[in-house]
C-alpha cells in the first residue's frame, strides 16, 4: 500500500512566525483558521483586488466581477465544500472530532485559502502575468539571463500569481511585520496548487506540476511548511512535493465559480443571450424541473441567477462526493486530475462545452482582448522603466527619481540581480489596473500630475 498523508498532521494551527505558540484552536470562540480569514479580509492586498481585472474590463454602467468579488464567491463555495465534506465524514464516524479535532475547521481553512488564491495576481488578469513573463523572454529583460541562475530565470520567464501569493503571505518586506501575514501552516499549504519550482513545473501531463507554486526565494519557506504538515515528497521530482489534499477543494471552488460566473457576466454585457446561457446551465441544474420557476421570472437576470445557483449547487455536491469517495487517493497523492474532471461524465461533458463557448465568445470578446493588449503595453512599459533603474549601480538623476517612486517596503539590501528584479516585480505586480495605468501615463508624460 502506498504511503499516505494523515489529517492529524495536515491540519495544524501552527502559525507562520509564531511556531512556538500553542493554541487549542477548536476550544476558543474564534479559531485560528477563522483568524486567517479575518486577517485576509482586512488586508491591503486583498482590498486592492477590487481594482484588478477578473475577465472583463472594470465596470462602467454594468457591474461585472473583479478579482475581489470573485475571491469572495470562491471563498463562499469553498466553505460549502469543506463543511459538506466534514458533515459526510461525521456521519460515518461519530467520534470524528475526538480523533481529528481540526476537521471541523475544514470549511474555514478552505474559505481562507480561497480568499488568498488570487492575492498574487497582477493587474489586467492573466495577461498581466503574460506581460511580465514576456518582458524577460522577448523584451528588454532578456539581457538579465546571464546575471541569474537557471532556477531564478525560470521564475522570471514564467511569472506565476499562485507563487506570488505565497510570497506576499510569508515574505518579510521592509518595514512590514517580518512574520508576513502570520497565517496557519495549513492555510498556507492549501493555496499552493503546484508544489514545485518553476524549473521543475510546466509539465502538461502532471496535474500538480502544470505550473509551479513557489519562487526560489520561497523554496525553504514551503519546505518548512511541507515538512511540518507531512506532505509527501514527489517521487518524480526530488525538489517538489505532492499537493496538500485541501488544495483540490480550493481549486474546485475556483473552477466552479469562474466557469459559471463568467457566463452570468457575459449575459449582463449582452455577449451571450439568455437562451445561450440557459442551454449551457440547465443541464447542470439537477433533476429538479425548473421550467415553471424560470417561466415565472420576467426578469432575465433573475433567471440566470437561478440557473447559476442551481448549477453551483450541483457541482459542489458532485465534488464533495468524489472527495469523500476517493479520499485515500487524495491522501496518498495519487489522484491525478482536477476534482472537477472526475465528476459524472454528463457533467464533465457539459463543463467542456461551457469552456469551449467561453473561449470562443467570452475570452476573445473585443473588450476582453482590448484590456489584454492594453495590459501588455502598460506592464511592459513599467518594467522597462523600473527594472533597469533599480539595478543600476551608477544611477543618473532620472533613475534616482524613478526608484524614489518605489515604496520602501519593496527595497532590498541584497545586491544580486535576481533579488533586485524580484523587488521591482513585487511593486509592479501589486498595482491595481487603475494605478498601473495612471503611473504609466505620468511617467510617459501623457498626463501631468496635479497638485491639490
Features:
452 residues; mainly alpha; Hypothetical protein af1432; putative deoxyguanosinetriphosphate triphosphohydrolase fold; two-stranded antiparallel sheet; 21 helices; globular
Tell me roughly what share of residues is in helical segments.
55-70%
The span between the termini is 70 Å
Counted by DSSP, the helix tally is 21
Q: Which regions contain 5 or more consecutive residues with pLDDT less than 50?
A: none
Overall number of structural domains: 3
Q: What strand order characterises the main sheet?
A: 1-2
Count all strands and give the number.
2
What characteristic shape results from the CA principal axes? globular
InterPro entries: dGTP_triP_hydro_central_sf, dGTP_triphosphohydrolase_C, dGTPase, dGTPase-like, HD/PDEase_dom, HD_domain, PHydrolase_assoc_dom
Pfam families: HD, HD_assoc
GO molecular function, one term: dGTPase activity
Domain HD/PDEase: 63-268
What's this entry about, in short?
The chain contains 21 helices and two strands.
Please give a structural write-up:
- The protein has 452 residues and is an all-alpha fold.
- It has helices at 7-10, 32-41, 44-47, 67-92, 96-99, 106-116, 125-137, 150-157, 161-170, 185-189, 219-229, 246-268, 274-281, 291-295, 300-325, 327-332, 345-362, 366-391, 397-404, 417-429, 433-443; strands at 233-234, 237-241.
- 55% of the residues lie in helices and 2% in strands.
- It contains 21 helices and two strands.
- The longest helix has 26 residues, at 67-92.
- Strands 1-2 form a two-stranded antiparallel ribbon.
- It has three domains: 7-246, Hypothetical protein af1432 (Orthogonal Bundle), CATH 1.10.3210.10; 249-364, putative deoxyguanosinetriphosphate triphosphohydrolase like domain (putative deoxyguanosinetriphosphate triphosphohydrolase fold), CATH 1.10.3410; 367-443, no CATH class.
- Its EC number is 3.1.5.1.
- GO terms for molecular function: dGTPase activity.
- Residues 63-268 form the HD/PDEase domain.
